[in-house]
User: Which sequence fits this backbone?
């Protein structure tokens, strides 16, 4: 029984008569996983093997895309698998709007292989640059105020 073997193993670890070496068990992917993304007309915009065969999990990766419209990702196995269905899932990230200047918006997508070996699109967010007013004007105003305060103190 596995329960008895586990108890013997625990006893061996605790016993000063046995020397048990440290060990770790790492799960690995048997098949690679690739992501394909599509342009607005439905044509393939690009693809990338995100997790290679033999990759350890659990593991997360942050991917960056530049888009003006919604992002459609399709995950599939990149190596042969022992069944006919190779597509894992299809994910849509949106709504994504073009940047204020009409250019592409930076989209960060976090994909993860969880402890059970299941692919998850964990999060997605857009990154927007915001122009902040230059602080030099504020610094100059502060300098002028300090000068005025010093003049008042001398009087």
Assistant:
């Amino acid at each position: 029984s596995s329960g008895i073997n586990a108890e013997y193993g625990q006893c061996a670890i605790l016993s000063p008569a046995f020397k048990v070496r440290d060990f770790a068990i790492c799960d690995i992917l048997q098949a690679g996983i690739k992501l394909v993304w599509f342009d607005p007309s439905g044509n393939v915009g690009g693809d990338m093997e995100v997790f290679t065969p033999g990759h350890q999990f659990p593991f997360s990766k942050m991917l960056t895309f530049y888009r003006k419209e919604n992002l459609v990702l399709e995950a599939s196995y990149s190596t042969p698998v022992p069944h006919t269905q190779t597509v894992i899932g299809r994910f849509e990230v949106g709504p994504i709007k073009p940047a204020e200047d009409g250019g592409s918006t930076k989209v960060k997508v976090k994909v993860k292989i969880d402890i059970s070996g299941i692919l998850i699109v964990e999060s997605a967010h857009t990154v927007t640059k915001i122009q902040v007013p230059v602080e030099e004007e504020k610094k100059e105003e502060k300098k002028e105020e300090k000068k005025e305060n010093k003049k008042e103190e001398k009087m």
Summary: Strands lie at 27-28, 33-38, 44-51, 56-57, 59-67, 71-77, 87-93, 105-113, 119-127.
